């Protein structure tokens, strides 16, 4: 039997190493407690992650103590585990952020010949966003974001491990490839959302060419979020894989009293989290209502790419004025994103489906776009030169540089001094300029302002 590759989990005490170990081996082999220092000796187990088999080692929390002390001997065990490993998972607590001990571990790992994957644990929700940004200073690139306790981010961990411990796979050549480019070849995860009876299931049935989903005149037929694999042929006859997700109708929250409907809506919102692109389906016979704007705002707040589809266009009255009215209402109601794509479709006749799916693939490409450092900073310099930041109280805000920290959605960090005093209007100017000049269109773009902490700078 061939020897399994070895993966070692390392990090300071109480960041979730044993929880991740248990998650990978599929059993509660390691003791887990809120108190730090529960794990002392190395614990090993066989793990399987989406068909990828390896040996995983749980290590004690790394602490900087004399080698003769108990914590020091525990550290030696950790160092031995790293020496025998094919790859190290450097775990940190994204909620707590980067502390000096994390920086000490990073310095030690950089001296090792073992490849390192940075893992941001406890990253569910948005409470760990600041810690994830801080982790870029460790020098290991973008971290894998996950929750070992809840199992979130396991797929991303698999993608990070595979090129290192399974190099012989033909589909993963030795040369480094951009992870986002690989994802663009994956099936498009497309969720259809909207108010009850907007025609979501009918539209998906028309796409599939079969009555795959139950439809009817009654509102609220769909309860579960149903995912269906589909191959879309573009106008040139090229096949494209799509995972269509039908969701329950979303009514105004105050009107949802039934427990089952609440569960259905929650399931639909979960489908939005899973999707890459979300199509908000509107009933053209009813026009745009406030609930539609609330759903759109929820989609954009979750960082998903959005396309608006006006369904039942074949029976709509005053089509031209209706279309212009919807566009105007969207411009006014979705102030955070201008120019969302609007497509007219008919689930009954199939009209507009090719345009809708084509638009979804285009918006996913913009949503997944990574801008090169040179191009990004050329844009940044030009934007500041064209419209310099204000000087509140006579003190200028200095914008130093910008970096893209992630994609899907595109997220950027701008560094400078006194950026906390930057007006929201100037931030909107930068985002709008970024959309226009860098080709992001109407996808969500997130920009964070940060002032580097300099202990020698007494002017701040």
From TrEMBL:
GTP 1 binds at residues 11-18, 58-62, 121-124. GTP 2 binds at residues 194-201, 246-250, 311-314. PROSITE patterns: G_ENGA. SMART domains: AAA. Residues 5-169, 188-368 form the EngA-type G domain. Keywords: GTP-binding, Nucleotide-binding, Repeat, Ribosome biogenesis. SUPFAM superfamilies: P-loop containing nucleoside triphosphate hydrolases. Associates with the 50S ribosomal subunit. Belongs to the TRAFAC class TrmE-Era-EngA-EngB-Septin-like GTPase superfamily. EngA (Der) GTPase family. HAMAP family: GTPase_Der. GTPase that plays an essential role in the late steps of ribosome biogenesis. NCBIfam families: GTPase_EngA, small_GTP. This is GTPase Der. The gene is der.
């Amino acid at each position: 039997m061939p020897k399994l590759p070895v993966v070692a989990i390392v990090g300071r005490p109480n960041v979730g190493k044993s929880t991740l170990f248990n998650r990978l081996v599929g059993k509660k082999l390691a003791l887990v407690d809120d108190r730090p220092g529960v794990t002392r000796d190395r614990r090993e187990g066989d793990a399987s992650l989406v068909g990828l088999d390896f040996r995983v080692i749980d290590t004690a929390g790394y602490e900087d103590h004399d080698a003769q002390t108990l914590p020091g001997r525990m550290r030696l065990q950790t160092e031995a585990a790293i020496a025998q490993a094919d790859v190290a998972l450097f775990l940190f607590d994204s909620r707590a952020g980067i502390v000096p001990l994390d920086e000490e571990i990073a310095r030690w790992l950089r001296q090792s010949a073992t490849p390192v994957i940075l893992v941001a644990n406890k990253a569910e929700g948005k409470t760990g966003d600041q810690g994830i940004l801080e982790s870029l200073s460790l020098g290991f690139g973008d971290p894998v974001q996950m929750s070992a306790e809840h199992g979130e981010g396991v797929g991303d961990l698999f993608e990070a491990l595979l090129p290192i411990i399974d190099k012989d796979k033909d589909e993963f050549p030795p040369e480094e490839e951009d992870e986002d480019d690989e994802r663009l070849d994956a099936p498009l995860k497309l969720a259809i959302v909207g108010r009850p009876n907007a025609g979501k299931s009918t539209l998906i049935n028309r796409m599939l060419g079969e009555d795959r989903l139950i439809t009817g005149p009654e509102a609220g037929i769909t309860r579960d979020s149903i995912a269906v694999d589909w191959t879309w042929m573009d106008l040139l006859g090229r096949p494209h894989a799509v995972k269509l997700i039908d969701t329950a109708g979303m009514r105004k929250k105050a009107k949802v009293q039934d427990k089952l409907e609440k569960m259905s809506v929650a399931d639909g919102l979960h489908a939005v989290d899973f999707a890459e692109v979300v199509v908000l389906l509107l009933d053209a016979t009813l026009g745009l209502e406030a609930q539609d704007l609330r759903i759109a705002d929820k989609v954009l707040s979750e960082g998903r790419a959005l396309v608006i589809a006006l369904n039942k266009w074949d029976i709509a009255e005053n089509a031209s004025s209706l279309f212009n009215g919807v566009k105007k209402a969207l411009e006014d109601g979705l102030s955070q994103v201008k120019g969302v794509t609007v497509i007219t479709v008919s689930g009954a006749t199939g009209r507009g489906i090719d345009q809708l799916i084509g638009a979804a693939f285009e918006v996913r490409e913009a949503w997944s776009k990574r801008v090169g450092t040179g191009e990004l900073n050329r844009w940044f310099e030009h934007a500041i030169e064209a419209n310099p930041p204000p000087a509140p109280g006579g003190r200028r805000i200095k914008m130093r540089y910008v970096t893209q920290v992630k994609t899907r959605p595109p997220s950027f960090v701008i560094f400078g001094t006194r950026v906390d005093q930057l007006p929201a209007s100037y931030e909107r100017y930068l985002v709008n300029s970024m959309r226009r000049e860098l080709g992001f269109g109407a996808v969500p773009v997130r920009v964070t302002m940060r002032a580097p902490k300099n202990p020698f700078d007494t002017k701040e």
